[in-house]
Amino acid sequence: MHGLNGAGSTGLFRDCLSGLVFALVIVTYCISFSALIFQGELSGGLNLGLSALLTGTVITCFIVALTSTLAPAGAGPDTPAVAVMSVLATAIAANTVLSGMSAELTVIHVMIAISAATLLTGLLLFAIGAFRLGVWLRFVPYPVIGGFLAASGWLLITGGIEVMTGVSPQLAAGSITKLFSSENVLQLLLGGGFAVGVFVLRRTIDSFLVLPVTFFLSVVLVDLLLLGVGLVDDFGGIPAWYLAGATDVKFWLPVPALFEHQIDWTALLLATAEIGAVCGVTAISVLLDVSSLEVARQQSADLDKELKYNGVANIVCGLAGGAAGNLSLSGSILIQEAGAVSRFSGVAAAAFTALVLFFGADVARLIPTPLLGGLLAYLGLVVLTEALLRSPAQRSLTEGLLAGAIMVVIVYSGYLLGVMLGIVGACLLFAISYSRIGVVRRHLTRLEFASNVERSPQDAALLREHGAQIHVLWLAGFIFFGSSNRLFEFIKHTMDDQKHPNVRFLVLDFSGVPGLDTSAVLSIVKLRNYCDERAAFIAFAGLNEALQNAFSTAGIITPDGPHRAFPDRNEALEWCENRLLSEYTTDDPTEDRFEDWLKGVFGDELEPARLMSYFTRKTFKDGQVVLKQGGRANSVEILATGCVAITVTDENGHLIRLRRMAAQTVIGEMGFFRRAPRVAAVVAEQPTVVYRLTRKNFEKMQEEDPKAAAAFYRLIVQVLSDRLEFANREISALV
Question: How many domains does the chain have?
Fold first, then answer.
């Protein structure tokens, strides 16, 4: 449907009609833009400027129409970029006035600067698109974009007022008096009334024809009125009401002009910032127009391709004497609403604009300056409204105020300073907002959350009794100057508030922390010093390589120091548990203690020896496999002394430790009772003693001693219940 030749005769007619509508509107815009750029002492360059704007429209519209991923598309000079070109022209004029340069040569300098800005804009856009860097433009903070657009809108309004009256609006008393003098009041009323009227009509009547129809009808009515009352007998007879000398187009080629005129390169170099601003504004305009058109049409665009071919269009424009242009949001929507069905609509718009460029540009002298200024003021109202009232800025008062502040800085100090301060302000605003979130995502003690080590009943009881001494903190996000001190204060406040028992161990899980800055390292140093004073220990978990190096360099983690680093949270918590247990127990589990545990389980109901007569004692050295992954589950074991690790070897051969079990528990029961292969291996982590019950002896016990078998079942149920309670408590703590 959007191909160049796929629409048929009806589609061709619709494309031509929509292209004509867009051409009429864009030509009107070009006339207004030329009046904005070339005013006052630069008014003699109106025709050159109009030629550059029309040339830029023809080239960009043609190339963008054929290459855009959002066809059908229109293109041409964009209002923010034109507003910056106006600032560029003013800067060039100010730089040349001291040298006594003639007005004609000053205009030549302005045109060279515009051509250079267009060429550099094309190279910038092409480079961004060719190197597929377009995604980075999407990270520009909205307050900067909003302030940028708002300033462009305000400059269009003030530029429109200057076009109406010939007076630059300023806060000085003399300027205000001159602006509202008797000879300017009528122009202000007419131009302002036109701008406000079209603005209201466009929001009342949902039709793209409102603006062009209203503008052309207003031009005819004002021309006839001036003729009817006898104020003029020839258009252009009143300089305040008509553009002087806009009789035909003077074509412009920048390269020959460099050799035909004596160029003051210093004046051009002094306008480098403004030339750079044109490049930046156009790049942002492409981003905004593409993003907005994606939303309006509910389709996705290739931003890199859009940037690349908009760059090609501007390179051609710069060499051919055209002004910078790009994909137009309003123009693309206008073409679509006018009935376009293919890319040919943009090609047709370029062709109609070319006809005006070569044969009909002298109609500019028929348009009263109040209406030209009013059209600029209308565009300014639209941009200002979109930037400050109908944008995402309205969702946040802070961002809206920042966008307004950026607008004020740009208006009074220029785009470069405004954008720089805006980016700094947006970053500070983000830092303040981000720091409010905090980096502590979850905070629990050992009473609510345990390591994945299954301990003996005695050790489990001790940890339940003294677990409040261990605190576990899950950290997340980048830790920087705005959040690092809050982290320190949070932990300090927690430790100060908890007495009897004191906080003795901190597990800080950094697995969700991608990085930190120097301020964060200093805060961790403060935390280490504070813990040293309180005889508390820090276990750092999940440190990436950069964090590990930073903490080691700062002396927070040392090989023989009290604070340690661990690969993950579980190992860190296990270390804290072991240190806490070592302060309350001195003896390692023995087989005598194992027997005492069995007596405690069975009580007076059954002598342990009666049950254990069906078990076989097995010993394992450190590293020996107790149960093999994938093996037949023909036995169930009771772990008497030592400890074992439950491990799984994945399909890539990587060994993963799932759980650790200390003495006085049961292992292998799941596969045994389900008669399924072992899904994990059990490996001794130190000298270990287990008692093994084979399936044959289990069946024998059921036949010979049902009471012993029932006691064994109760042991299994008790162990599984304890594990289920542990799992439920952990899930509840993490929810």
Answer: 3
